[in-house]
Structures are given as C-alpha cells and as structure tokens.
Design goal:
Layout (H helix, E strand, L loop, with lengths): L6 H7 L6 E5 L5 H14 L8 E5 L2 H14 L8 E4 H13 L9 H14 L8 H18 L13 H17 L5 H14 L1 H10 L2 E4 L7 H11 L5 E5 L13 H5 L1 H4 L4 E5 L1 E2 L4 H11 L11 E2 L8 E5 L2 H17 L7 E5 L5 H10 L4 E3 L10 H13 L5 H7 L19 H7 L4 H18 L3 H12 L1 H12 L4 H13 L6 H20 L9 E5 L8 E6 L15 H15 L2 E10 L1 E2 L2 E2 L4 H5 L12
Parallel strand pairs: 1-5, 1-6, 2-3, 2-4, 4-5, 7-8, 9-14, 10-12, 10-13, 11-12, 13-14
Antiparallel strand pairs: 15-16
Helix pairs in contact: 1-2, 2-3, 4-8, 5-7, 6-8, 8-10, 13-24, 14-15, 16-17, 16-19, 19-20, 20-22
Length: about 625
C-alpha cells in the first residue's frame, strides 16, 4: 500500500461493511487510514469511487485528504467525493431549493445584519461592539447546530429577552433577503431530510460508504444528518479521538462519539495507538494528564520515536521574565541548528500573545501568527486609558473628553461640551449655578494636571485607583451582569507593559509602533516560504506539529480557564492541554508564573496531574 502500516491500521483499512469506529490518537496516521481505506474499497472490494463520500470539517483538510489519496493512487482522478460538511449540505439544499452561491451570506453582510438586529433590540450600549457581535454569532451558531429551541436558550452575552429578539430579527433578515449562513446549511438539511423522505432516499442511494474525519468535533444536527444519510446500510466509518475534542464553544459534542457504540451495537472498533510524532517523555507526560478525565475511551498509546529529552517545567516570577526566558531558549536552540519554523509558542487565548510578540520584535526574531493577535491597545478599556493620557498631555479634543468625562460618573452633560476643543473655563461657566458640578470639574482638572508629572506605570495606576476608573469598570460590569475580572486583568497587563517606559509621550509612541507592526504582520500574505516562530492559540495548533513547543502561563485561571466551572468544562480544558502538549516532536517546555497581573498566581492543577502516576521521573523544575 505504499507505506508501512501497523496491524491496527491494516484492520481499519480492511474493514468491510457496517459501522466502524477508529480511535486514532495524536500522530497515529488517521489520514493514512482514511485514504488507504478508500483505495482498498475501490481496488480490492470493487466499490465504484462515486459511491464513496469522505467528510471533513475544513476545506484545507478536504484538499489535503484528496491530494494524499491521489498520491497513493498514482494521480488517478477518481470521482470519490471529498468535501466538508458545509459543502455537502449546501449541495443537498441547492438541489432541493435551487440555491446558488449568491444565497450564502458574506461575512461582511452577516456582521451588518447582526449589528442592525442589536440596534433593533435596543441593546447597542456596548463598549466593544465587535467582541459582542462575535459572541452573539457564536451563540447563534450553537443554537442552530444543536437544534435548540430559542425560547429555551439562555444567553451568556446579554439578557435572554434581548438575545431572543436579536436572534429572531437576524433570522428574519436572512429569510427576507433569501440568504442562509453556514449554520443554516446544517439545520435546513436536517429539516429537509425529516420532511422529505423522497429527497433523503435519493441522497442515500448516491453513497454506499461514508467516511468521517475528526469525528470528535461533530455537533448534534451534523450527526443526525449523517445517521439519516447512512441508513439503512450504515456503512459509516468514523475516525477521531475523543481526547482531542476541544471545540465545545462551537457546539462540538464529544459525548456523541462516546455513545457511538451504543447507537451501533455491532460496530467494528479499532484503536490505533502507535504515535510517530512524540518522544516517550512527551507522550507519557501528556497521557498522564489525559487519564485524569473520567469521560473517555481507554487507549494504549505508544511512542515510536524513542525516549527523548525530559519535559521541562519552569517557574518564573512574572510574565515578563517568562517571555525573556522563552526568547533566550529559542535563541539557544537556533544556535544549535533548530530551524526557526520548528518553534511554536502556544497560548490559551490570543491576548496572551502580546507580550511574547513584543519581545520577539525587540530581539528582531521573525514570527508568524495563525490567529490574528488581539492588540490590547485596541480594546475599549485601553482606549479609555490612552484618552486620559492624551488629555493629560494637553489634547483638548471633544471626542477624547466625551470618551472618559463620565468614567467614573461626573454627570457632565454632552451639551456642556459642544465645541471641537474643550475649554475648562467654559465648563465652569456652563455649571456656574451648580457649585457641586464645578467641584467635580475642578477635581478632574487637578487629576489631569497630576497625571502629567507621572511615568506611564504610575499614571495608569492613578487613573485606575485614584481617579476611580476601577469603580467605573465594576459598575459597568454589574449593570450588565458580566464578570469584571477580564477587564481588571487587562488594565493590569497594560500597566505592567508600561513599567519600563519613562514618559507618557514614549508610551504613546510605543503603542503606535506596536500597532503598526501588528497591522503589517496581519496584512502579510501567508505564503508557504514565510517562516518564523509560530505564535498561536492551543485551539489553532490542532493538527500541527513542531520540534520545540513552549506552553507559557500554565496557571490556575488560565489553564484551566477561570470560566471552567463544571467537571465537563474542566475535562475539555484538560483535552486542550493534551492537544497542546502533543504538538511537540522533540522538546516540550511548560512554564507558570508566581505573579500575574499584579496578583499572586498558582500553578495549574494540571501540572500536578502530569507527574501522576510517577513514571515520568525527569521533569525539571
């Protein structure tokens, strides 16, 4: 078959009819199994290639799968259907309803429809509109993918009544303009199959064998559509790893894979455990972690690359020292011959990348970002702090004043600030018959004067604690029923970042230069020859591998996330850490800090778990 196959891989590839579940852990060659099974069906079993459907979750995976298949069939252009769930479902809807690509809403128009729906719900008083819309969009996708009744759904982004109005208005806009979004493709196909047995039968006749990649990422309606499509032959061949199910926030349901044997009691089950990516030290440490999950299939995963070097666990006083040490280690590895594109630094969230990105810029080390890094200085909280600093430096533009004049509440009316340039004398004059308001204006003027004399670190502290911005943030979050911790952490991060910058003017220049560099990198074409240290989230790293991987900030509240409050969500966090650890081929560096955002920080519980049971002796701390 062109490659040397293990006994388990052969068993999976040679499976004949009926349902099969292939448990394929990280680095075990699942693409090899799928492509060789397709080849086996055609050339050994005589199955017509057009009767075979291979379903993936991304276009990139689909293209790779087809290319790999063509490489093992000597480039023969066989009509096997390789496609994503969305392309399959859209093809079905196109045949039933005459839809074309023009009926698929663009990302830009979808944003506008959601924006208009939010305004219609009279809930447009949000500081970060982009982030709010992103959260709403994700929740709408989850509702559609899970087939949840909107009246039974409780939003985490806004009050239920508001969310339901936004959802219904958005759906009405789609219907009125004859648009569908990607999530509609799943739910509309499900409704079509349930309502029209004749159409379902037509599609059932089209495919005799269905193979599904990354099955652990499936959601409820995707699964129900597949079940209907595969019946009654039930030649459903699923490949995945429940330990790598990390997309719960998108509606992925690992429990579907876990209950698959109950749905198909006579299925063939094959566990492929030979890992060709990681060393024994790395894989053993990762397995120590994942075995703490209670809800999972037991597996025997074996590293085939030898023992390798110890996993290094390090403790640093803060994130800045941690960043310096990571850069130093990268430079050491490069001097010893490790290519620059064999490094990855993986983070729980994209915002954590800022510090490492700034350090890499400082040392002139190239880096690439799979995720668009969220520039912390573009956040509305940062913009408020910047506005205060600019005012302290003498900028009197009306827009700046309106941004912060009532943060904290001073009850200064917009009518009092009508001119493009603000003059304090005119403000006093406007409130001349209200001494208490003049006192507030005087206090603000004194605060601005005091700030001018301070270094950036002290100025941010002054805004936050003396002027009262901290109280404003607390009140803002309380009114909306959201946790203020993320905002507080952001202020601390901005303040810490400014700690070695001497003047307010220098700080503003630093912000401008950093923003320009991030924009330049975001706009660079992602060409294959582009190389550099990879910065990405743990989620984005899935499917990739590197010689050297760094996992910083493995602290409680980061990994696992502070939002992980249930056993189910903690298990997903553990799976995410497992995925991140198994990206490393040769060297894995894990670190945590003792102080984070100005507060004491504890190491993640996961760091204790990777040492238990104690068959990994060579972890350095």
């Amino acid at each position: 078959m062109g490659v040397r196959l293990s006994k388990e891989q052969k068993a999976a590839i040679e499976h004949e009819n009926g349902p099969a579940m292939i448990l394929a852990g990280p680095g075990t060659g699942k693409t090899t199994v799928i492509t060789n099974r397709v080849k086996n069906l055609i050339f050994k079993k005589g199955v017509p290639p057009e009767k075979i459907l291979v379903v993936t979750f991304s276009k990139a995976a689909s293209v790779e799968m087809r290319e790999r298949f063509e490489s093992i069939t000597e480039g023969k252009m066989l009509p096997v259907r390789f496609g994503t769930f969305h392309s399959l479902f859209f093809h079905i809807l196109r045949g039933a309803y005459g839809l074309t690509a023009k009926n698929i809403i663009s990302a830009k128009l979808k944003y506008r429809f959601l924006e208009e729906a939010i305004i219609s719900a009279r809930y447009d008083d949000v500081e970060d509109k982009g982030e709010f819309i992103e959260n709403i969009e994700r929740e709408i996708g989850k509702i559609k993918g899970e087939g949840i009744d909107i009246n039974m759904y409780y939003s985490t982004s806004c009050p239920e009544s508001v969310f339901r109005k936004i959802f219904k208005t958005y759906q009405e806009k789609l219907r009125k303009n004859r648009y569908i979004d990607f999530d509609d493709m799943i739910s509309y196909t499900h409704a079509l199959f349930v309502a029209r047995a004749d159409i379902l039968d037509k599609w059932r006749e089209m495919f005799d064998y269905i193979l599904v990649d990354e099955f652990q990422d499936i959601n409820k309606l995707q699964y129900e559509n597949l079940r209907m499509l595969a019946a009654p032959k039930n030649n459903l061949f699923i490949v995945g790893d429940d330990d790598q199910s990390i997309y719960g926030f998108r509606g992925a349901r690992p429990d579907i894979m876990l209950s698959f044997p109950e749905e198909y009691p006579g299925l063939t089950r094959v566990s492929i455990g030979d890992n060709y990516r990681c060393t024994e030290q790395i894989l053993g440490t990762a397995v120590n972690l994942i075995t703490h999950n209670k809800t999972r299939f037991e597996k025997n995963i074996v590293a085939k690359k030898g023992k390798g070097k110890a996993v290094v666990v390090a403790n640093y006083p803060n994130v800045f020292v941690q960043a310096d040490e990571i850069i130093e280690k990268i430079r050491d590895y490069m001097e010893k011959g490790t290519p620059i594109d064999e490094f990855a630094v993986l983070f729980r969230t994209s915002r954590q990348m800022n510090i490492i990105a700034r350090k890499l810029m400082e040392y002139n080390i190239d880096f690439v970002m799979k995720d668009r890094v969220q520039n912390i200085f573009e956040h509305w909280v940062a913009k408020d702090l910047i506005a205060y600093v600019k005012i302290a430096l003498g900028d009197r533009s009306r827009d700046l004043f309106l941004k912060v004049v009532n943060k904290p509440k001073r009850y200064i009316s917009r009518d009092a600030i009508k001119k493009s340039e603000v003059v304090f004398g005119e403000l006093y004059n406007y409130y001349r018959d209200k001494p208490y308001m003049c006192d507030r204006i005087n206090e603000m003027q004194n605060d601005i004067f005091n700030m001018k004399q301070l270094a950036p670190y002290a100025a941010i502290d002054y805004i936050y604690n003396i002027i009262g911005y901290k109280d404003y943030l607390k009140e803002f979050c309380q009114e909306r029923g959201i946790d203020s911790k993320d905002f507080m952490d952001l202020v601390e991060e901005i303040r810490e970042d400014a700690s070695d910058i001497p003047t307010l003017e220098d700080w503003l220049v630093h912000i401008e230069e950093y923003g320009e560099e991030m924009e330049r990198r975001a706009n660079e074409k992602k060409e294959e020859e582009q190389s550099g240290v990879a910065l990405m989230t743990m989620h984005a790293s899935k499917g990739l591998e590197f010689d050297v991987v760094f996992l910083p900030d493995i602290n409680e509240g980061v990994v696992p996330s502070s939002k992980s409050t249930t056993e189910e969500s903690e298990e997903e966090e553990r799976r995410l850490m497992y995925v991140a650890m198994t990206r490393a081929r040769k060297n894995l560096h894990i670190s945590y800090v003792t102080k984070r955002n100005g507060r004491d920080a504890s190491p993640s519980i996961f760091l204790e778990e990777i040492k238990q049971p104690s068959n990994i002796q060579s972890i350095n701390e």
